[in-house]
Amino acid sequence: MPGGVMVPYAERAVAAAQDAENAVRALLRDNSGPVALAVTGTLAGERLSNVLKRFARRHPDVALTLRTATSAEVSDLIRRGEATIGLRYDCDRSRDLDCEVLFAEPLGVVCAPDHPLAGRRVGKLADLRDERWIAFPEVPGRREITASHVFALFLTHGLGEVGWTPVDSLTAQKRLVEAGLGIALLSQSNAAEELASSRIAMIRVGDLAASHEVVAVTRHGGFLSAASRRLLDVLRADFTKTRGTNTSRRNGVRRA
User: Fold this and answer.
1) Angstrom distance (rounded) from CA 14 to CA 39
2) Half-sphere exposure of residue 45, counting CA atoms within 13 Å on the CB side?
């Protein structure tokens, strides 16, 4: 039998052993111990930092750790039991995971503050067809805002390909936008700091309605300590406060 076939079973066994260890620790002290959070790198911004600070103040006995990864890697860390809670983009259809959509984060077009369209509104996405776009390159398993998101938007509007520059860093993307070397499609939270300080500006697009789902991931049937459940509740409360109702999915199927 090829070794690769046994990998999922081995991962489940290791995760189950980790569950047993965590359960024993939870018996000793209900609201303490380790909680490992895995987050897609572009979500590890000021908003998440504020959430974690509040949680740490309220629960000083919890050993909270944070790891950043791609969305696919976040799922792998949860599946193997190396992380307790994950935050990623879009649902993972694996039967080993439970996915809960926290909110759909709006996306907008950003540009340099001295761009001719800075702070202005264009009627349609087609008006930006000749711009140079900056986006993440295509990487298997990555669910961040890659070039394919931009291309898909243009194709949806009946337009062809656009010129783009691949940049594998959110920070670098924003610096290039600031320098006037292109425009980008970013989430509101990722652009908030630069917009507030006027280092970049928005271009409002009349026919653009784009968003990205932010999803909490846990292992299906896995053990969650009281501390882990409290952190998950804090994340739900903070990340869904601007969303009217909470929608969750398991294995990609919408649940009321």
Assistant:
1) 21
2) 14
